[in-house]
Amino acid sequence: MKIVKVKNYEEMSKRACSIILEKVNSVENPVLGLATGSTPEGLYKYIIDAYKQNEVSFKDVTTFNLDEYIGLDKHNVNSYYTYMKEKLFKHLDIRPENYHLPNGSADDIKKECEQYEKLIEQAGHIDIQVLGIGVNGHIGFNEPGTPFTSRTHVVDLAESTRLANARFFDTLADVPTQAITMGIETIMESKTILLLVSGEQKAEALARLLDGPVSEDVPASILMEHPNVIVIADEAAWQ
Ligand code: GLP
Side by side, which strands form the sheet with 31-34? Predict the structure, then answer.
């Protein structure tokens, strides 16, 4: 595990952007794994800037997002589809058929999960997966207790996660109770993992990842067993 300590959120985002650009510019038909939440917003802004400066093209890039809420239409303002479209995809030359999120409105959710796994496999697996971390150590929406052997599946969101994400919704009751997420094993098959950690509210999760045992109680702790992880964490995230 390579740990990069940076001063603040901006520096974290900039460093992450140069790692992503390096990957996109060096791999043929790159496959990116992407995340939502507040953490990668700065990274996406820097990627858009780089694209506008002609430093990178996304026309041969395929992407897979980690997760999506169940029960929100993809055009709902709070869906992760809308987040990705507004904060990244619509600003780039990525082909609409090349970006993927799980469909949280699918009639057959189990089939949707299997299909998502197949698509990732057919794309040749993820070259670099961007990850944030939940306050409870979750990755994607894999809450504490999720088996390390999990593949893309449906989750019941932890109350702490719904509370943490309520800031994006009008009321807590509007926050969905379920989501589809890539499984932990699916995430671990990514060739490289880029974990971004910012802010003091993440300090405990980061400490449990770095110092604690590898345990299903802290989903992110499995990253200790991945051969190629880069953690970029800002000063506030270190206790
Ligand atoms: C969310 C997402 C995760 C994200 C994490 C942290 O619930 N499902 O993919 O990494 O929680 O979010 P944030 O970056 O907003 O702190």
Answer: 2-6, 229-234, 192-197, 128-131, 31-34, 62-65, 99-100
Q: What class has domain 2-197+211-223?
A: alpha beta
8 Å CB contact between 144 and 137: yes
Q: How far apart are CA 155 and CA 66, in angstroms?
A: 13
127-152, pLDDT tens digit by residue?
999 999 999 999 999 999 999 999 99
| Residue 143 bears catalytic tag | yes
Determine which one of 68, 112, 138, 142 is catalytic: 138
Domain extents in the chain: 2-197+211-223
Kindly report the pTM of this predicted structure.
0.97
What is the C-alpha separation between 93 and 82, in angstroms, rounded?
17
Ligand 1: residue whose CA is nearest its atom 5: 134
Q: Is the CB of 102 under 6 A from ligand 1?
A: no
Q: How many residues are listed for the chain in this entry? A: 239
Number of H helices, E strands in the chain: 7, 10
3-state secondary structure of 67: strand
Q: What span, in angstroms and rounded, lies between the C-alpha atoms of 205 and 117?
A: 28
Mean per-residue pLDDT over the chain, rounded: 97
Beta bridge partners of 34: 65
Phi-psi group of 176: left, alpha or beta (phi > 0 → left; psi -120 to 50 → alpha; rest → beta)? beta
pLDDT tens for 165-215 read 999 999 999 999 999 999 999 999 999 999 999 999 999 999 999 999 999
